[in-house]
Amino acid sequence: MLAGELALAGIDVAIVERRATQELAGSRAGGLHARTLEVLDQRGIVDRFLVEGQVAQVTGFAGVMLDLGGFPTRHPYGLGLWQNHIERILADWVDELGVTVYRGCEVSDLVQDEAGVEVALSDSTSLRAQYLVGCDGGRSRVRKAAGIDFPGWDATTSHLIAEVEMAQTPPLGIHRSGFGIHSFGRVDYEIRNGEVIYGDTGPVRVMLTEAQVGAVGEPTLEDLRAALIAVCGSDYGVHSPVWISRFTDATRQAAAYRERRVLLAGDAAHVHAPDGGQGLQLGMQDAVNLGWKLAQVVKGISPESLLDSYHAERHPVAARVLRTTMASIALRRGDERTTALRDTVAELLGVEESRRRFAAMLSGLGIRYEFGEGHPLLGRRMPDLDLFVAGGPMRVYALLREARPLLLDFDAGSAVDIGPWADRVRAIEARYDGVWELPALGAVTAPTAVLIRPDGYVAWVGDGSDAGLNEALNEWFGGANTA
């Protein structure tokens, strides 16, 4: 995702990929949330995912499903789509954009200087870059080489997850026992009327709570077989694993998302339990927040200090996810006191205001960056409104396809002037006849103009004048071009 954002901005970018081919063994993560779908819509590629996935309400907490129906978005749902398909679609996109991919090697070391980063690769070659972004997971070698601390909390639970063949069909679905939660499902499934219908054949996805925490090394088929017998009393004739992995509720976050010319995104910057399917969403949205900023700095449009806003904006978002997933893990326990607490939280989520607030948070639609006091739109995602512009009807997100800043002027009489920034910011006079509405907040006062960043977040809101506009343009899109 980050490579795509940089390529759209005309930056020479390359990916160093450990896998020799694009193929990812197994299905892995299971889908996309509403805000991630909006981000893909902003780039004009969301249909590639929708045509392969299955629309469903997937947002939930404490055992309560939080329906996004009625939210002001074109995607009031999640999308069931395995990670191997998500990666393939994104890889096709960046290939179309001409991104270079160095396959079959990985970063082994790095050295920074004032002008760039020397990156040593595992095949004994090296690359020279102005900036390096570690998107290399929770055990990030880039993070360690850059000397960035990774504080947090150690694991309290451990789980095995696998994709295997089984001679006997296990009880499909989610189950609770004295060991904790375990589940069985098939990779082949469809969703009918909100219900998951599994196929009759094909690999089985297994998730089991382990009796012990702290096992080291990669789990084996024998580890999985022993865990199945311990939890279920049978191994169901398990054989032919596609992949087996272990995950815990270890929760950590990078102390800094940037160390001079090295930055972090995705699991390299934050790890947490997979409850709620938040990790993939966080990583992709990290990338979209960082991409345009890094591009402007590389081009010399903005000073390096713009990169500090990446940490300032994304660190609190991930910290909230870490807190939420830790709470979700705590509510999983099977003792009577936790059950009482879970029931109480579920009751609170039955209240409309609480439901909308949690649904907006977990889906990513409620994210707000702290840009100071002002209109409720400030710092929030721009809604994908149906506009009327000079060329006819137009959606807001269609105007963001090129990942350029956008000024929408809804008051033709005011003639908002962006003169010195006209080469960087696209200005359009538009009309919108509907109600302005935000998730969890409802209707808000209609602005006279909005300045939208390439990542789709509102950087300035007009109230009939252009007060503060030049300051916002200067802060986000570089100094005025007076040449």
TrEMBL record:
It comes from the Bacteria. It is an enzyme of class 1 (oxidoreductase). InterPro entries: FAD-bd, FAD/NAD-bd_sf, RIFMO-like. Its EC number is 1.14.13.-. Residues 1-324 form the FAD-binding domain. The keyword Nuclease does not apply. It holds the Pfam family FAD_binding_3. It comes from Lysobacter antibioticus. Its cofactor is FAD. This is Polyketide oxygenase CabE. One of its GO terms (molecular function) is oxidoreductase activity, acting on paired donors, with incorporation or reduction of molecular oxygen, NAD(P)H as one donor, and incorporation of one atom of oxygen. The keyword Oxidoreductase applies. PANTHER family: BINDING MONOOXYGENASE, PUTATIVE (JCVI)-RELATED (PTHR43004:SF19), TRK SYSTEM POTASSIUM UPTAKE PROTEIN (PTHR43004).
